[in-house]
Design goal:
2 copies of one chain form a homodimer. Helices cover 41% and strands 16% of the residues of chain A. Chain A has 448 residues and is an alpha/beta fold.
Chain lengths: 448, 448
């Protein structure tokens, strides 16, 4: 039996899948943060026109431009791999497959949308893209895309990550992009926050504010977001569309799909093409895996909230822990965003998407078992999915069921070794986000 | 046109290619370091029997054990990729292909032999393998193999690298292996060197001495070497055998092949199957690319020398800069070994193998261009081949020739970002190894 299911380049999808027209409950429209009225295209001018159209499109299939497919072919189609060694180690009757998105040059699924976004901006004459990054996967993906498409990139990286992961910075420099720790002195909001507390460790919500301010205050400069929004999930569906073809090749179909979930881009990417089948009656379970320290889908509130700290972004109707959420600094495992994709949030609300949360030590333990059996070192984010997969495979063993499990191997951990060191030293601590804090966050939520 | 030429798993080679019976001039036998007589099997008892047989075999095709093929399938067959973006950037009529060995979990070609060696040791009941590592690629590959095959691994890492590359250490720990900076206090030779100079930065030759001493002084413990020896090149031929099949698929054949060369394992791996054709009259140029600061094949002497500092190893007939060679500490580009594979040395002597040397700044400049056009960040070692490829492609442009160029993309640079930082900071310096030093080294050479 082949360990890897490989597609030919010509089998790479020619369309992305847009789930908006298929959603059982339509998502609520984003609101202008001042007027609290549904957004106009004018409100979205930090994005190029093509992206704004995609964000609101009701077209089910959206063509992938030839240039984007050409760049995808640097690493796509990605392999679907059977984790036979992990199955043996667990002595499970379950079949475990993973879609390996770590093979991209930036080491994660993020370039799938970075390349598309850089392409549309380039087509509309944009010279510079600004963005934020947390752990660094998104920032490096956009830097890569900028390098391949000839567009400048300016990255605001959450300060605590910037300091913990110096080599993400090097990678971004190597691809010719600029990078600044956030809060920075490059923006009004950054300077304000620094004045209040020069040691502010930063957050994703704050870095978003800085990147947006940079975009709106500079000529020919637009902003790019790496998760949460509809067009981002749209571009990522290339993952799930390929995976479906790969399962067709082997005559199988997943019973359950897991993916790590922060803002929702890799989960949406792998799951939405299968979600289409589920909406049409197919029996497949789809599960978001998140950290217990940032449990947006498992403990958050489904409501309108800002996507950033400075309240510059539109209000999104989503699960949220409150836009003031600051992840605990002991958390090394990524996925620290306070909100979640409106599409995934609605699917969660409608009972089509399950969610589980895990503590980081058990998550790293799972990642270690994967690395020791399958070889590849997973990113901390990816370890979350692996933990859930292992639990599912052990349940299948107890129940004596031959389940087919699929998960998104969203990225490798080559730039996260300091987190593994922390785990290996035995000094990693868990932190479970308390229910009370969620209630506190309610006070800060916008009143609609 | 497809960018990637992909083989199916069933097309992965079932045999390694052993060039020994095809060499126009046989290599001179290794000698016992004390008696100066050709080695007996007894002298090689730091290796398992199967490896000793392979080291001296005259069988042209040696079967790859099923278990080894199964582990290879975690990442093999590796893709052959057309570097179209690099071609465009150079505006060259040359076609540039690279065999991407960076896709292994350890990030380089090294696991091809690490897995085979761990397998044969395991089969003979060995519990622990010791080894040395310079930049860390070999040590992490053996740690990976040990983890996948259930065998302990103890790594001695050249101290200067150990300190410069902390995350290689983490990677080795993650796969469950032990690692010590060399010189260490774990061995006689290590303690002796530390006593003379506690700040000794270490060298590959010294780390080899420590690993061998560890193996001979412990029960059930053998030694594994990651380059230079015949069996290592043998296992690596899986690279070139796959590449030949891939060129058959597209109806092409390389005019010239480049690979970085330290001890010779990736060069031997990609080139020997093509060298077989060359020996039989095929017109193909094969070129070793080495650093100007460690120019073994371009400036070294072809003679008997030790493979290590402590003179514990057999004498090998090879190109050498002298076993006392210490690479300058300003050298960040890998490939720091004083000697070279006896097989490749003999082919070089016979005029079948060309060699060029480059300075490290031009090598990193080439690697940057590759990363910016093709996306993937090359290891410093790999950058050497890329520099030579770029020069060849530019010559092809001047001459208006449509050459087919192949090179071995031996590894990625995810654990070498500090070296890129040094280059990007403008502080990287070149150092050309002076002819006089080669003459000095003659004094230390063993008299046969």
């Amino acid at each position: 039996m082949d360990k890897k299911i490989i597609l030919r380049e010509e089998d790479m999808p020619r369309f992305w899948y847009n789930i908006l027209p298929d959603l059982p409950t339509p998502i609520k429209p984003p609101l202008n943060p001042e007027t609290k009225k549904p957004l106009t295209a004018e409100d979205l001018k930090i994005f190029p026109k093509a992206i704004i159209e995609q964000e609101m499109s009701n077209q089910r299939e959206i063509p992938i431009p030839e240039k984007v497919r050409e760049i995808y072919s640097l690493w796509r189609p990605t392999p679907l791999i059977r984790a036979l060694n992990l199955e043996r180690a667990l002595n499970t009757p379950a079949k475990i497959y993973f879609k390996n998105e770590s093979v991209s040059p930036a080491g994660s699924h993020k370039p799938n949308t970075a390349v598309a976004q850089a392409y549309y901006n380039k087509m509309e004459g944009v010279k510079t893209l600004t963005t934020e990054t947390g752990a660094g996967q998104w920032g490096s993906a956009l830097a890569l895309a900028g390098s391949l498409l000839g567009i400048n990139v300016r990255v605001y990286m959450v300060k605590v990550s910037y300091e913990q992961k110096p080599f993400r910075k090097s990678m971004i420099h190597l691809w010719g992009a600029e990078i600044y720790p956030s809060p920075s002195d490059k923006t009004e909001i950054g300077r304000k926050i620094l004045k209040e507390n020069p040691n502010n460790p930063g957050s994703l919500g704050l870095a978003i504010s800085e990147a947006i301010e940079d975009a709106v205050t500079h000529e020919n400069t637009k902003y790019a977001l790496g998760s949460v929004l509809n067009h981002v999930l749209l571009h990522q569906t290339v993952i799930g569309l390929e995976a479906k073809k790969q399962f067709e090749l082997i005559g199988d179909y997943p019973d359950v799909i897991f993916a790590p979930c922060g803002g929702g881009s890799n989960l949406g990417g792998i799951a939405l093409p299968f979600m289409r089948d589920k909406i049409n009656g197919k029996d497949v379970r789809i599960v978001a895996v998140e950290p217990a320290s940032c449990p947006t889908l498992t403990k958050g509130i489904f409501t309108y909230d800002y996507a950033d700290v400075a309240k510059m972004t539109p209000l999104l109707y989503m699960y949220t822990l409150g836009h003031n959420f600051m992840p605990p600094s002991i958390h090394a495992g990524g996925l620290r965003y306070h909100g979640d994709s409106p599409i995934l949030s609605q699917l969660r609300k409608d009972g089509l998407l399950d969610a589980v949360a895990y503590n980081q030590t058990e998550v790293f333990e799972a990642g270690m078992l994967f690395a020791k059996t399958e070889g590849i070192i997973p990113a901390p984010e990816t370890c979350h999915a692996i933990k859930a997969v292992i639990d599912e495979a052990l349940r299948a063993k107890e129940e004596g069921k031959e389940k087919t499990i699929l998960f998104c191997f969203s990225g490798h951990g080559h730039f996260d070794m300091a987190s593994y060191d922390l785990y290996l030293s035995g000094k990693m601590k868990d932190y479970e986000y308390p229910e009370e804090k969620v209630k506190e966050a309610l006070e800060y939520l916008p009143k609609i």
